Amino acid sequence: MPSLWISTFPLYILPLYLLWRKLHLWLAMRQAGCSPPISYKHTDPFLGTDLLSKKSAASQNGDARAIDQSIFKTYGKTVRTTLLGKNYFLTMDSQNMQTILAPSVEKFGNEPMNREACRPFLGDGIITTDGALWKRSRQLIIPLFTRAQISELSTFSGHVERMLERVPCDGEVVDMQPLLKMLFLDSSTEFIFGRSANALKTDSQAEGSVAERLPVAFDDALSGMRKRFMLPRVVLWIMPRDRKWLEKCAEVHAIIDGFIEEEMELQKREKVASESSTPYRYVLLRELVKITDDKLFIRNELLNIFFPARDTAGVLTGNVIFLLARHPHVWKKLRTEVLEIGQKSLSFELLKSMKYLHAVINETLRILAPVDGSWKTCLAPCVLPQGGGPKGDKPILLQSGDQVELVFGAMHKDPMIWGEDAEDFVPERWEGRKQNWEYIPFMGGRRICPAQQNVLTDVAFVLVRLLQKFEGCENRDECVEHVDAQVFTKESRNGVKVAFTLA
Ligand code: HEM
After folding, report:
1. Mean pLDDT value of segment 244-272
2. pLDDT tens-digit series, residues 439-452
3. What is the DSSP string of 357-398?
4. What is the mean pLDDT of residues 6-29?
5. What's the 431 CA to ligand 1 centre distance in angstroms?
6. Among 83, 172, 224, 454, whose Cα sits 20 to 30 Å from the Cα of 240?
7. Has residue 2 got a pLDDT over 70?
8. Within its chain, how far is the Cα of 55 from the centroid?
């Protein structure tokens, strides 16, 4: 009899381990004064593939957040789901987000989710690491966003004028999305590498130019990275190398290496100042070459900033125009404010003082932000104030390894915060409204988007120039609704097709 017990012992191990784990969690929860979290009812409670396939279908149908929204509606503002055997919390609760991003920031990290998935393309840098590595990267890029840098609008103005020359004045339909992407490609390459890709200069789009190759290769590399992002880390370790994707990464790397080698050559010949055509005082590439000749380190740092820089501001500007074209009364009111400034030159201070303009941008960031969520991994046990008990109003305990998605896009449309018209585009709601943890399009805490002021200034600049030049802006897309493209940012799958009429 004992030999039968011993021979079948392996069969008991897993259930015993699961039981022990459950007991251990229950005790820890009790000790921390927490209640069980509200949990999603999976049909596949072990791997959660039921939810995964629903989310993937929603994303293909053009509303990537539809499933999250319906979960919040049914269960509450913080819900525990299962993702490939792990606890995966979804939250749209501002108190929980504040806890994760501010007082308990040490207990959450980006690295477990980002580093392995992004490594072959982005390497180590501000986006993919935590701790000392992240701190070092953040220190290196912060000078990019000083007041002096942001106020330097002369070169940006040149790029904007080149873009405006390409916008038809006679009511012909134009898709603003690709034009805006070119604009911000030109300005971000200048800002980060000290040399613009000059995509908006007709001659620079010649076959084989950086302006032609970089966006295509970058998009291909990002789409492969997005797929990896969705896979569990253990699959990443065992799956065969995706050669096609690696070739795309290598193509981007070769372009960036070209920028680095050129800069190294210039610095060797001590010609940086005289040959540099950019008025920016702090150029990241230049500063990195000054401190090291490790090309891989430099490339990783550059890519980790170029990745969020390249498209986001262009997508946001496109989303503002998308909404303005569908709300002509807002365009008209905004134009009145813009015309009031007359011929004054567009400085950082002047743009900042335009209240309705900022209300329009804030409102777009509320309902149609390019980034509407963030993933964190719990690194040490942490109590979140909401999400437990039958009503979800009791504290819950997160354990190391649990993942949590901060769906701030859903919080930005919560009728309990914004009222019954929460889904509508109403810039007037910003009149006299103070910002707090219920509105965090750039997130908050020490990992807040460092480019926030820069983005707001540049987007405001482009909008003012458009409104100065054009009297009207009409939607020319048969599809009135916003349909999400399947990319990292929340951008329109159908572009931003509009027609402008001259003043
Ligand atoms: C509309 C435009 C933008 C929005 C809405 C936005 C939003 C965000 C958000 C929500 C995060 C936090 C991500 C997370 O931790 O999961 C973030 C981080 C970051 N953003 Fe932005 N961003 C924008 C544009 C930019 C631009 C133009 C740049 C660069 C020039 C940039 C650079 C960064 C960097 C480097 C981080 C990582 C910060 C860190 O982890 O310390 N962003 N951004």
Report:
1. 91
2. 999 999 999 999 99
3. HHHHHHHHHHHS-S---EEEEE-S-EEEEEEESTTS-EEEEE
4. 78
5. 26
6. 83
7. no
8. 19
121 Cα: distance to centroid of ligand 1 (angstroms): 18
> Among residues 160, 68, 178, which one has the least CA distance to residue 404?
68
pLDDT tens sequence across 156-171: 999 999 999 999 998 9
| Ligand 1 centre distance from Cα of residue 10 (Å) | 48
Burial 189-211 (b: 16+ CB within 10 A, else e): bbbbbbbbbbbbeeebeeeeebb
From 449, 453, 458, mutation site for ligand 1 pocket: most ligand atoms within 8 A of C-beta: 449
Atom 30, ligand 1: which residue's CA is nearest? Answer: 309
Q: Torsion-angle region of residue 131: left (phi > 0), alpha (psi -120 to 50) or beta?
A: left
Ligand 1 centroid from CA 202, angstroms:
30
CA distance 423 to 408: 14
27: region left, alpha or beta (phi > 0 left; psi from -120 to 50 alpha): alpha
pLDDT value of position 236: 72
Which tokens is 53 given? 């396939």
Q: What's the helix, strand, coil split of the chain in %, to 5?
A: 55, 10, 30
- pLDDT given at position 1: 56
Which tokens go with 83?
Answer: 């993702």
For the cut 90, the answer to whether the pLDDT of residue 24 exceeds it is no
Q: Between 35 and 489, whose confidence is greater?
A: 35
Q: Which residue matches tokens 């690194």?
A: 379
The pLDDT score that the predictor gives to residue 170 is: 87
Tell me the percentage of the chain whose pLDDT exceeds 90.
74
In the reported structure, the alpha carbon of residue 96 is separated from the centroid of ligand 1 by a whole-number distance in angstroms of 20
Query: pLDDT for 331-371, tens place per residue?
Result: 999 999 999 999 899 999 999 999 999 999 999 999 999 99
8 Å CB contact between 256 and 301: no
Which ligand 1 atom minimizes the distance to the CA of 312?
2
List CB contacts of 354: < 8 A, sequence separation 6 or more.
337, 338, 341, 460, 464
Residues in contact with ligand 1 by the CB-under-6-Å rule are: 110, 126-127, 138, 305, 308-309, 312-313, 316, 369-371, 374, 441-443, 447, 449-451, 455
pTM (two decimals): 0.93
- Give me the pLDDT at residue 209, please: 84
Say what the pLDDT of residue 269 is. Answer: 85
Task: Specify the pairing of strand 78-83 against strand 170-175.
Answer: unpaired
Residue minimizing CA distance to atom 34 of ligand 1? 449
**Residue 449 is labelled as binding a ligand:** yes
Residues whose CB is less than 8 angstroms from the CB of residue 73 and which lie 6 or more positions away in sequence, other chains included: none
Nearest CA to ligand 1 atom 4: 442
**Burial call 459-494: b when 16+ CB within 10 Å, e when fewer:** bbbbbbbbbbebebbbbebeeeebebbebbbbbbeb
